[in-house]
Structure formats: C-alpha cells, structure tokens
Design a protein that fits this description.
Structural class: alpha+beta
Number of strands: 17
Order of helices and strands: EEHHEEEEEHHEEEEEEEEEE
Strand content: 25-35%
Low-confidence stretches: none
Bound molecules: 2-amino-4-trifluoromethylsulfanyl-butyric acid, cobalt (II) ion
Shape: globular
Radius of gyration: 17 Å
Number of helices: 4
Largest sheet: 4 strands, antiparallel
C-alpha cells in the first residue's frame, strides 16, 4: 500500500507524506476549523452540550465531510465537549452549561480520505480571571510547541517547549493523553508527548503530519476515566483546558492545517 501511494516510513514508523498531500490536509483541516468558528454563538448559559453536538453533526454533513469520531471505538458523537474539570473526551449530553463554564470542543472530520482534527476553548457567559489565565497559558503552550517544529528538531523539543512554559506558569501538563500522527488515518505513530526533554525522541522530517494538543490543569496533572469509559477528568477536580491543531512539517518549519478562517481560534469569544 505504502509503496503504491509513494509513502515512506521512518525508523520510528512515522509516515512521510508528499508535497501534494498537504492540499488534502488543508481541505480537511479547514472544514473542521470552520465548524469550530460557526458554533461559537451556540455556547451560552442554558445551552446543552447535546444541542451543540447536534449542530456540529449537521454541519459536518452539510460541508460534504464525514465525522471521524462517530463509530470510532464505539463513540457515538461528532464532537467531544469537555467542561471545566473534564480533561478530554467529554460526551455531549443533557448537561446544561452555566455561567462561567469553560469548555473544549474537539471536532475531527474526514474530507476525501484526509483527517482534520482540531479543538479550542469556549466560555459560557462570564470568564473568571483564573479560567482566563489557564486558557491563555494553554493556548500559548500549544503555539510554543508548534514553533519548535522544523526538520532536524525532535519531538522531545516540542514536549519540552510546552512543559517548560506551562510549569513556569505554575500549572501542570497532563501526561495521560498525547497528540498523534494523522493523515489518511485518525491516529498513527508517533505519540506526540506534551512534556519531555529537548533533543530526545524521533527527529522531525519534512512531510510528517501530526497533532499537538496539550491539556493543562490548574492543579495536579493526574486524570481518571469515568465509568462511561470515555470522560477523562482531573483527579483533583481542578480546571482543565486544551487546544489542538493538526500540522505538517515543511522544509523550513510547519504548516498549520486547522487555522481558523474567522481568526477565532483564540479567543473564540469577545
Ligand atoms: N479528537 C480526539 C483527538 O484529538 C479524539 C476523539 S476520539 C473520540 O485525538 F472517539 F473520543 F471522539
Ligand atoms: Co487529536
Ligand atoms: Co481532537
């Protein structure tokens, strides 16, 4: 298969895509990012996460794309919506948003076989100072990780950039979940850790596609998964935030596939 499609894999089993493949990733990433732009007005106190997911499901279809999460390992929704102390993989439902809630909405679509995976933070009503600081640090940590992406650097450089910044701000990086290779598949090698040591890990090469999606807690980094087998929460119930981009490594840096066409990646409000 790889031979047929001209694909090559590194010694760490990371797929190297061709320059032409970047266009496919841009198309998929744009659809996912547009959906996250368009649902921003739906986030307000009194709204349910099920209603937000219903509109996302509709938009995925209307844009001629497919949800990557519906049917994935038995998951039944077009988005994950993770409120307050939920770290990731929150399941949309009758939960009613209340004033001051912060939430991550994560959408993955498939367009012509290419996967676009992105998430960002929203607020229902008024944002508290501590939540604002958490969200800002998490966004900036993602961007510091992305800025470490160029051929010759390592995955450890990405993790170290994120961890150093988060811990300098006296917050913690979740270790139990990581970013991932993607492309024509949802989750592929490598695991993209959001912590680590500069210079360690696989070397970045032009044509690698992966996500960076740090989860940051105001308290301790430990998580636990609830009995629904999906919802991951901060063990100490502290507030948690996450941002995610899908990116590709270029000859001299990176290409972000999931940029917000409306310029609303951060902040989504105001
Ligand atoms: N989009 C998530 C990620 O960033 C994965 C969600 S899988 C699901 O990798 F099944 F929970 F939707
Ligand atoms: Co992802
Ligand atoms: Co995602």
């Amino acid at each position: 298969m790889d031979e047929k499609s001209g694909g090559r894999r590194t010694r760490d089993n990371i797929r190297i895509y061709s320059p032409a493949d970047f266009a496919g990733m841009h198309a998929a990433g744009r659809v996912a990012a547009e959906i996250l732009d368009e649902i921003a007005p739906l986030v307000f106190p009194g709204q349910t996460t099920a209603e937000i997911d219903r509109v996302i499901t509709e938009k995925v279809q209307a844009k001629g794309s497919t949800s990557a999460t519906i049917g994935y390992k038995g998951y039944q929704h077009a988005s994950c919506i993770s409120v307050n102390h939920v770290v990731c993989h929150g399941i949309p439902g009758d939960k009613v948003l209340k004033d001051g809630d912060i939430l991550n909405i994560d959408v993955t679509v498939i367009v012509d076989g290419w996967f676009g995976d992105t998430s960002r933070m929203y607020v229902a009503g008024k944002l508290s100072r501590k939540a604002e600081r958490l969200i800002q640090v998490t966004h900036d940590a993602l961007m510091k990780g992305i800025e470490a992406v160029k051929p010759g650097n390592t995955f450890g450089d990405i993790g170290a950039a994120i961890q150093t910044y988060v811990e300098a701000n006296r917050m913690s990086v979740v270790r139990d979940f990581c970013g991932h290779g993607l492309g024509r598949v949802f989750h592929a090698p490598p695991n993209v850790l959001h912590y680590g040591r500069a210079g360690l890990g696989p070397v970045l090469e032009e044509g690698m596609f992966f996500t960076i999606e740090p989860m940051v807690n105001l308290g301790r980094p430990e998580t636990k998964v609830l009995s629904d087998d999906w919802t991951a929460v901060a063990r100490d119930k502290s507030l948690s935030a996450q941002f995610e981009h899908s990116i590709g490594v270029t000859a001299d840096g990176y290409d972000i596939f999931t940029l917000s066409p409306a310029g609303k990646f951060y902040p989504t409000w105001g």
